[in-house]
């Protein structure tokens, strides 16, 4: 395109959507001794944002997609790509303490 000039942000004509990029990793008890836990990037949109906090134990269902390299990096990488998970559903196993209901059974 090579067009020169300045860019101006038009917030009135823009639509901002909630987005969160989360890195998840294996549980410590599932990692073999002497190995590094595997990690995966998860992209959350809309209502799935701000549901996951550090230290949460979760199940994620989604679409496993490639992130192709662009520019000079694509020439050197060949057919390799980075991958990420596009989250469709998040299920938390361990809830925060504020969600805990205190009654006679929990005391």
Automatic annotation (TrEMBL):
One of its GO terms (molecular function) is single-stranded DNA binding. GO terms for cellular component: MCM complex; nucleus. Pfam families: MCM_OB. GO terms for biological process: DNA replication initiation; DNA strand elongation involved in DNA replication; double-strand break repair via break-induced replication. Residues 3-67 form the MCM OB domain. InterPro entries: MCM, MCM_OB, NA-bd_OB-fold. This is DNA replication licensing factor.
């Amino acid at each position: 395109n090579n067009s020169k000039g300045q860019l101006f942000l038009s917030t009135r004509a823009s639509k901002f959507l909630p987005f969160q990029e989360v890195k998840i990793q294996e549980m410590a008890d599932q990692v073999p001794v002497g190995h590094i836990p595997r990690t995966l990037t998860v992209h959350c949109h809309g209502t799935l944002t701000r549901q996951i906090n550090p230290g949460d134990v979760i199940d994620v269902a989604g679409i496993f997609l490639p992130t192709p390299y662009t520019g000079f990096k694509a020439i050197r990488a060949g057919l390799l790509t980075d991958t990420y998970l596009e989250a469709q559903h998040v299920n938390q196993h361990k809830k925060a303490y504020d969600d805990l209901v205190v009654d006679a059974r929990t005391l």
